[in-house]
Amino acid sequence: MSDMTLLDPTAELKPVERQLLPRLLSLSGATVGLLDISKPRGKEFLDEVERQLTELGATIKRYSKPTFARVAPKELTQRISIECDAVIEGLAD
Amino acid sequence: MNQSVEPSYALVLKKDCPTCALIEPVIAELVKAMAGALTVYVQDDPSFPAAVANPIDDRSLEFSYKNNIEFVPTLINLTADSEARIYGWDKQQWREFTGLSALGEGLVDFKPGCGSKTQDPGMDEVLALRFDSGILQARQVELAESEDVMEACYERGWTDGLPVVPPTPIRVIRMLSGSDRSPSEIIGNVPPDYRPCSIEKIAINAVMAGAKPEYFPAIIAAAEAALLDKFCMHGLLCTTYFSSPVVIINGPASRQIGMNSGVNALGQGNRANATIGRSLQLLIRNVGGGVPGGIDRATMGNPGKYTYCFAEDESDADWPTLAMDRGFDRDQSVVSLFAGDGLTPILDQQSRTAESLAKSMAASLRGVAHVKLFGIADAILIVCPEHRRLLKDSGWSKADLKAALFDELMTSGHEIVRGASDMAEGMPEKFKDKLLNKFRDDGLHIVSTGGTAGMFSAIIGGWVASGERGSQLVSKRFSTSGDENE
What we know:
- The structure holds two protein chains of two kinds.
- Chain A is of the alpha/beta class.
- Chain A has helices at residues 42-55, 74-83, and strands at residues 5-7, 31-36, 59-64, 86-90.
- In chain A, strand 2, helix 1 (42-55) and strand 3 (59-64) form a beta-alpha-beta unit.
- The model of chain A has no long low-confidence stretch (mean pLDDT 89).
- Chain B is α+β, with helices and mostly antiparallel strands.
- Chain B has two domains: 9-120, 3-Layer(aba) Sandwich (Glutaredoxin); 149-478, no CATH class.
- Chain B has helices at 18-22, 24-34, 62-66, 91-98, 123-131, 149-155, 169-176, 199-209, 216-226, 233-238, 252-256, 271-286, 322-325, 354-365, 385-393, 398-408, 413-416; strands at residues 9-13, 38-42, 56-57, 71-72, 74-77, 85-87, 89-90, 110-111, 114-115, 140-142, 186-190, 195-198, 244-250, 309-311, 333-347, 379-383, 410-412, 435-437, 444-448, 456-462, 474-478.
- In chain B, strands 13, 14, 15, 16, 19, 20 and 21 form a seven-stranded mixed sheet that branches. In chain B, strands 3-2-1-5-6 form a five-stranded mixed sheet, covered by helices on one side. Chain B has a two-stranded antiparallel ribbon with strand order 4-9.
- The model of chain B has no long low-confidence stretch (mean pLDDT 94).
- The interface between A and B is medium-sized, with 15 and 36 residues.
- Strand 1 (5-7) of chain A pairs antiparallel with strand 10 (140-142) of chain B.
């Protein structure tokens, strides 16, 4: 047993792997952030995503990273977490 | 085959032991006389002793642990029907045991042995973990090399917001050693998920809370008390009100484990006070699934939901303790749980008579939940030592105080019905012509704790669903290893 073994303090109802956050049950009324990581053509792609999500009843907020080469600034991730129920990140060109 | 009519022996040694070194010539004699009938186990250095060609390397201590070796040297007759072993060096005894009448000629007659390595501090739990695979049943969570163990506990949702002690198997085994209870014993189902709770799960959460093994009996008792139907833990957890379990410990155990019943008794700084209360909270969170925002719907909660635990000051033999009020004896260790919220001070530095002090206390007690709501919330009145002394100097007993408070708190319904005193809140109109008491029968509990300076008593207000329709104070006796009998 390694030092990195812990005993589960819970009732063991969930799998031991870290769980994803709860998924949205519906897009209706939800606010979805679209994060453009600033790669070429990201805007066109996210415009289409916005159009389709809006049809499904979601409210869209748009964000962009200063540069795709670095992780998003803390202020930006905090703002998205406050303002949105979910976020879609445009990953690559 | 010949069924072992020849005796067979095991000899357990430690090179570091002077007695084992002393008897090297004896070992040489034994090897010569017994040959294959003797098996030698060495706990620290298998190059020892020189006379034995192939001693068994017991640096893992497996043989020593499984055979409960307490001293070295130990010589065991493995063929004897019943347990037969000798330890240390006693020439006459060794001669009789082996039947070798000239054994150890020239050696001193007697030299005591040394402690077996299995007896080294902390070793018992290490060996239990190594060789008793059945002790721990809880699921094991393997962390990735890249994970920070403290952060991993947070990320899995196991903490109350403060860091926890990572529940490693060895720590949990050490915690379990604080009680004689079987790790697999189920004490009940923990709300709100009503999942079975084993002694082992309590130990895991106690480790995380930072508790020591010697606190474990009190923690188990607190968990058992929380599961009593009278306490109504499920409802208490779900309520939008402030309340949560308040843990009060009475009896010798509180002193044995060094609980604080003096200066700052309800504050920070004492490990036992802090971690016993926190253990219960973590248990409810982790085993019960009672997570704020999930089933826990408290509007504000209260800081005591991290931990809320203290001991009563039992230094005055004339003052019956809370446990005694609940039918226990002064020499019994008891944990009581009360569904309570924060702390409301009663400052009275001017009273010099018990009558005046009782009026002060009663006036303050009216504020529990709301000054115009009667009989819905219990309360604990915490009498500080200076007020306790004033009562005593006035010739009042605790029962006298209780009776005076009852009288002071009788109130005409018309004063407290809805709308009275221009306040919409209050008792329903039907109580207008009744005489009501602030507290239901058995709804006001009195306990004493705190430092000796300061005329500051206090109130712990109860849940607004007190009594049979909700929660009642519960008490559970427990014993510690320091007690002779349950």
